[in-house]
Amino acid sequence: MTVDVLYETRAKATGGRDGKAETLSGSFNVKLATPKELGGAGGEGNNPEELFAAGYAACFIGALKFVGGQENIAVPADTSITSTVGIGPRSEGGFGLEVALEISLPGMEKSAAEDLVAKAHQVCPYSNATRNNIDVKLTVS
User: Fold this and answer.
1) What separation in angstroms does the CA of 70 have from each of 16, 61, 74, 119?
2) Radius of gyration of the chain (CA)
3) Is the pTM of this model over 0.85?
4) Coarse DSSP helix, strand, coil percentages of the chain, rounded to the nearest 5 percent
5) How far apart are CA 107 and CA 89, in angstroms?
């Protein structure tokens, strides 16, 4: 599979889960902290799972808008997605992720919203990257 890259960005992390990450453009800079549940001290700072959850949710809304635009479907301005990302040991060894996206499309008829979500899941780059790799549960609320 090839990708016709239209945009790319670069980020640098130092110090691992207790370090920092930033884009090379300087537009984003975050302190990282390992959660207590993963053996860290917790405290101020974010972790890669939080960043992944935020990115997936935002990207999926973009996919909803893309599909909506193609099909002349008005995606509600107050559309929101709550993304839950879990991490833990895999039975095969190493660590794995699972994702649940709770999608809210206020004012849309439920079956139309579910159809839009299914189509967006086929075009969203995060969904394509995770497909057949991790469990992704989609719920339209």
Assistant:
1) 41, 14, 10, 11
2) 17
3) yes
4) 35, 30, 40
5) 39
Sorted by sequence, the CB contacts under 8 Å of residue 46 that are 6+ apart come out as 30, 31, 32, 33
Pairing outcome for strands 20-23 and 95-104 = unpaired
72 φ, ψ (degrees, to nearest 5): 55, 45
> What is the sign of the dihedral through the CA atoms of 12, 7, 59 and 123?
negative
Q: How many residues does the chain have?
A: 141
Cβ atoms of 126 and 101 within 8 Å: the answer is no
Q: What separation in angstroms does the CA of 98 have from each of 36, 83, 103, 110, 113?
A: 19, 10, 16, 25, 23
The three-state secondary structure class of 11 is strand
Q: Which two tokens stand for residue 33?
A: 């902290």
25-52 pLDDT, tens digit per residue, is 999 999 999 999 999 998 899 999 999 9
Bridge partners of 101? 83, 138
Query: Could you report the per-residue pLDDT of 63-99, keeping only the tens digit for each?
Result: 999 999 999 999 999 999 999 999 999 999 999 999 9
